[in-house]
Write a structure and sequence with these properties.
Number of strands: 0
Strand content: under 5%
Shape: elongated
Oligomer: single chain
Distance between the termini: 117 Å
Length: about 325
């Protein structure tokens, strides 16, 4: 009986409200955190307050960093717009950024997901001096190939715009750089679905899913047009100088001057790792024709014929492609 009463009193004690004495504060909980402190100052890392405005070179470097590394599409677009405006309207004696600094930072933006950023990027590329772009053709075509094989249709189309710009200002520098000929043709074949299938009896594979939807619009026709332009740059014969006698030869200082291009003997790959057939630099048109005849001629001929039969804009682009291949390979013999 005593035990039962004791248990009842203990349970009743849990529901009793404690009486608070006047002037005495309530006991603090075990997990109480004191938040009564006041901060007298807030210090930010790398804070710089100055009355002088930043220099032009500092502003260019800052906006270049924003364009290449910002996570916001709006910031990248605004930074690219600033760079385009400053570099296009800058006077000749104003400080600027050379292509050797701009291209390594901005080339990855060829794969940017924002259409506005890629549009501003192409505007900036067109401002750069052609000779500076030619010296870095290998880096430019590397990111261009990545854009050509991207899953997004818009990025593939903009990558073709970059390829057209490079072909217009550098001529055959793109097809002569290491990997510029075979690897770019492989990217074209992958983008357009023109790949061999060894397991098929017809030796032709079905078209890739990313290309089927492009057959009925301008995208596929533009791919055919740019392929024809690229092949024309690689298959056309170089100008051969006429042999002259020793009496007709005059001293030309330019022949013995220092090279004006970056890494003039890079195609020899004297100090680099060994290259395979795809990564080789094909410096003359005969070597490029030989590889094209061996690996791509049948694929391109059949693809151009299929495009020509489709009619319309695609048919005209297919006819142009077939004409370029025929003229480029006219004087080529497999025996040579």
């Amino acid at each position: 009986m005593g035990s039962s009463m004791r248990k009842k009193k203990e349970k009743k004690k849990d529901f009793q409200k404690p009486k608070l004495r006047v002037g005495k504060t309530k006991a603090k909980a075990d997990n109480f955190t004191d938040t009564s402190f006041k901060a007298k100052s807030i210090v930010l890392n790398q804070q710089s307050l100055t009355t002088a405005a930043p220099s032009s070179s500092t502003q260019l470097t800052h906006y270049l960093s924003l364009a290449s590394s910002s996570k916001s599409d709006t910031q990248r677009k605004d930074a690219m717009s600033y760079l385009v405006s400053r570099l296009s309207n800058a006077p000749s004696d104003a400080p600027t950024l050379p292509a050797s600094i701009l291209l390594p930072k901005l080339l990855p933006l060829i794969l940017d997901g924002s259409t506005a950023v890629r549009a501003q990027l192409l505007k900036l590329f067109k401002i750069l001096p052609p000779e500076d772009v030619s010296d870095r053709a290998e880096s430019v075509i590397l990111y261009t190939r990545a854009g050509m094989t991207h899953l997004a249709t818009e990025i593939r189309d903009d990558a073709l715009n970059v390829l057209e710009w490079v072909l217009d200002i550098t001529g055959d520098a793109i097809v002569k750089c290491p990997g510029g000929w075979v690897k770019t043709l492989n990217s074209f074949m992958s983008m357009m679905g023109w790949t061999r299938d060894k397991s098929s009896t017809s030796k032709w594979s079905s078209e890739s899913k990313v290309t089927i939807s492009n057959k009925s619009n301008k995208s596929f026709a533009r791919q055919l047009t740019l392929l024809a332009k690229f092949l024309k740059a690689g298959l056309d014969e170089e100008v051969v100088l006429v042999k002259r006698s020793l009496n007709d030869i005059k001293f030309d200082p330019a022949t013995y001057a220092l090279p004006t291009v970056h890494d003039p003997f890079g195609y020899l790959n004297l100090f680099g790792p060994p290259r395979d057939e795809d990564g080789t630099a094909y410096m003359d048109s005969d070597s490029r024709r030989r590889v094209f005849q061996k690996r791509f001629r049948d694929i391109v001929d059949k693809g151009a014929e299929d495009a020509r039969r489709a009619g319309g804009e695609t048919g005209r682009a297919g006819s142009t492609l077939a004409k370029v291949v025929k003229e480029g390979m006219a004087n080529f013999s497999s025996a040579t």
